[in-house]
Specification:
17% strand; single chain
Length: 329
């Protein structure tokens, strides 16, 4: 994903080394693999969807491993892409999509997120609901891995999807579909990815954890600076990282964001890495995740965690320790 950028920059620009760390980055094939490797101790930490901290801590998928985050690595970064066929049917936004669905009662339209516990799943559901379209009742919702969504749209298996960059842009620049909205527009500054590790890894060496956060702090600042974005795109485009054309990364990192159908918008807020207190793991950001899980009944059989349980997952106290360590320099 484009928003893995802080980890890549911390490695490639020497920020990990600057803070006395020897870090190996491991490119994994999917979120389920990351979840299972964290659970089994094969990864010490990971860039992860914000929900995965709760998913593992509360055992939503049967695996229980208390996890935490003290650093939000990215906000925003998603887009909702619809098929060219929907455009030909007259769809231009959520309101016209609802009308087209009503006008075709014999057809079952299908939309995708990328993981059950992901902002993309919540966002596509929330966007549909905001226009009177009820997921599962009026349309199908399926889960498709990010690199496959644009091919599924092209082949007609999907009518639309919500996915993180660069996978929307890759399809848009190939004219496979068109973007109806960026998540920064309809859910501004929603928490997207976090730096996740197990509680045991933190407790084993809290100073090591702070050193990791210091490196990520430096890297996130680099990633957010507009003058660094072209170089960042070129770095992420390499085969060992995101491995897509630079143009697909530039769409959200540099802009303007090409929405398709000869329309473009500013990319200034498309992905936020550092400004606006992005990195602080607040209770409000955790609550956004939990409220979305509850709203869409993603995990109905589990009681909603208490405030104290959530605060054990989103560790603003550790983040404050990071800030204190930075102020000493």
């Amino acid at each position: 994903m484009t928003d893995c950028a802080p980890l890549v920059v911390a490695k490639e620009m020497g920020y990990f080394e600057k803070h006395g760390l020897d870090v190996e980055l491991s490119r994994e094939p999917g979120w389920a693999t990351i979840r299972e490797k964290i659970y089994h101790g094969e990864l010490d930490a990971a860039q992860a969807p914000a929900s995965m901290v709760m998913e593992l801590s509360f055992g939503y998928t049967g695996m229980v491993s208390p996890c935490l985050t003290a650093f939000v690595t990215a906000h925003n970064g998603n887009a909702i892409t619809l098929s060219n066929e929907l455009w030909d049917l007259g769809v231009r936004d959520g309101e016209s999509l609802a009308r087209v669905i009503r006008e075709h009662p014999s057809r079952r339209f299908t939309f995708a997120g990328v993981l059950k516990y992901s902002s993309q799943n919540y966002l596509i559901r929330h966007w549909l609901l905001s226009h009177g379209i009820i997921p599962e009742k009026d349309v199908n919702i399926v889960v498709i891995p990010p690199p496959q969504v644009h091919d599924c749209l092209k082949s007609g298996y999907l009518d639309g999807y919500c996915v993180a960059e660069p996978w929307s842009s890759l399809g848009l620049l190939q004219n496979i579909g068109w973007c109806t909205t960026l998540s920064s527009d309809f859910s501004p500054m929603h928490p997207e990815k976090v730096f996740m590790l197990t509680e045991a890894f933190h407790e084993e060496d809290p100073d090591r954890h702070i050193a990791l956060l210091r490196a990520l702090w430096d890297a996130a600042g680099f990633c957010d600076a507009p003058e660094n974005r072209p170089d960042l795109s070129r770095l992420l485009a390499t085969s060992c990282y995101v491995d897509v054309p630079v143009e697909a990364l530039n769409n959200a990192l540099v802009g303007p964001f090409q929405m398709g159908m000869n329309h473009q918008v500013s990319a200034d807020e498309a992905i936020v890495f550092h400004r606006n207190d992005t990195n602080r793991p607040t209770l409000q950001k955790a609550a956004w995740v939990m409220n979305e899980i509850a709203l869409h009944k993603i995990q109905p059989e589990f009681p909603k965690p208490s405030r104290s349980q959530i605060l054990k997952c989103f560790r603003e106290d550790i983040y404050n320790d990071l800030l204190a360590s930075l102020s000493k320099n």
